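Bench log. Compound arrived from synthesis this morning; before running ITC I wanted a structural hypothesis for how siroheme sits in the protein. Inputs:
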Amino acid sequence: MSEVKLSVNERIKGESRHLRGTISEDLKDPLTGGFTSDNFQLIRFHGMYQQDDRDIRAERQAQKLEPLHNVMLRARLPGGVITPKQWLAIDEFADTHTSYGSIRLTTRQTFQFHGVLKRDIKLMHQTLNSIGIDSIATAGDVNRNVLCTSNPVESVLHQQAYEWAAKISEHLLPKTRAYAEIWLDGEKVESTEDNVEPILGDTYLPRKFKTTVVIPPHNDVDLHANDLNFVAISEGDKLIGFNVLVGGGLATTHGDTSTYARRADDFGFIPLSHTLQVAAAVVTTQRDWGNRSNRKNAKTKYTLDRVGIDVFKAEVERRAGIKFSESKPYEFTSRGDRFGWVSGIDGKEHLTLFVENGRLLDTVKPLKSGMREIAKVHSGDFRLTANQNLIVAGVAPENKAKIEAIAREYGLIDDSVSDQRKDSMACVAFPTCPLAMAEAERFLPEFVTQIEGLLDKHQANDTIVVRVTGCPNGCGRALLAEVGLVGKGPDKYNLHLGGSRYGERIPKMYKEGLSSAVILQELDSLIGLWVDERNSGESFGDFVIRAGIVAEIKVSKVDFHD
Ligand code: SRM
Ligand code: SF4
């Protein structure tokens, strides 16, 4: 039998001595601003990516300079919870030690620093550690930041669900002490039992792995983008267990028909007491059965389709020593964030702020300064949402007016922002993302203005979930949008249509490689058709499928490329 050739990443992980590599030696090397060979990959397991500013890459190349290497850091914040004290510290670090000076809220409920030079990396981790934050397992082949439906203090259920998100995150974390040793100058404990990885294994997972805890009726975490999902089921105010859904994911590769975006499959209901063992069983099944030769087919979604959903599920039951029972009924009736004030059952108030593209920076509006001013006076906490927005949570009623006044003064509340803009999202893309093929974050604001114009022109009186992603990796979750643009090249996007409003359908490619001008022409006529011919209350995504403009994707493996 011929031996299967493992991917290069498998060798790197295997030889890394539990994610240590020679990162410490590289840190001391003054000859380059970057990380060399295997360490380039290994720093990801510590929550960092090596990047350079693509806007000035050619210029530096012409000057025969190496790219201006720096790192992007992504913090670990299960459920997106962060305190004002922590906020003030990250705000200061962004100002003093990052080249972009911004805090970037992500689609997975955390924040990123962009542009940290090698000489400041240790300081960054030590600063974060001093405020109780780390960046362990926010990247690399591990379970990533665990998402939880936002505003967890809105009901007792939210609080319980958030606690489970935190427990699952802890349970699935790497056990290696490499992070503490390298970044926090922790005691070296190599080759002790501290390094045993009972769940992730010595070569970690075949690929990244993503988990959510979601509380219906709000699908604000977009569960179908994730490998493992726990849908909260309650009796009254009491969380009794979870429906478990496995195998979602959005990334594709242009021109490779073996890749596709896929919804997660329903495995059934489990009581709360089974949660951690089921989480571990799904992860270890994927660990042992996932493809370690071809990283493009390595995620859980492909493992499920290769071995069969029933076979995968039976293995999870065997490993966890449980049986799934029939899923309990639930329904999603919303997806985006609920902006403005919401009253909590604890007598506290919660304010959700819209942050376009999640970018907190003082540009047209002094958003970053506004957040700093709020953090100085706020006694509750902040909750980052999975849609790049932010909740000022737990405001005492007597402080409500003060917080609102600051938010208005600094543009964090702006009544002129349309619902359409709030329903739109883009990934980072240029200038920091090395994989970007087209603009996304910098493209979105003007594109939304154009869409607003089209909705007005046709008197739609409604919004459309619009998302842009700078390459087919799908970080902006365009492949769960009603209108999804997937970058292909400079001002070239594949146009996908027909996702559902609440994120339960993958949109189908309508046309390939269009310029933004042509996309707007297409949308002009499609929105016109929708307004003229839609059934009462019918969303754009549902309409384009009913009208036969695109076919519905039912089984991704079969229908995605049809
Ligand atoms: Fe992502 C890689 C940004 C959510 C699928 N993603 C990247 C990198 C790190 C580029 C790289 O590998 O060098 C991007 C860094 C850009 C930058 O300069 O900041 C990047 N991803 C992001 C963020 C910041 C987008 C945003 O605008 O918020 C999100 C950070 C989430 C977090 O806090 O952890 C982000 N990425 C996602 C999502 C959406 C989600 O998880 O809900 C997806 C699609 C869901 C999925 O996984 O299927 C996603 N990112 C990817 C992939 C494709 C993975 C695959 O299955 O093939 C890559 C590339 C890779 O892993 O090889 C990628
Ligand atoms: Fe970068 Fe592509 Fe992700 Fe956008 S979708 S952040 S371009 S990897």
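What the model suggests: The mean pLDDT is 95. The chain has three domains: 1-8+140-334, 340-353+361-418, 420-559.
ITC booked for Thursday regardless.
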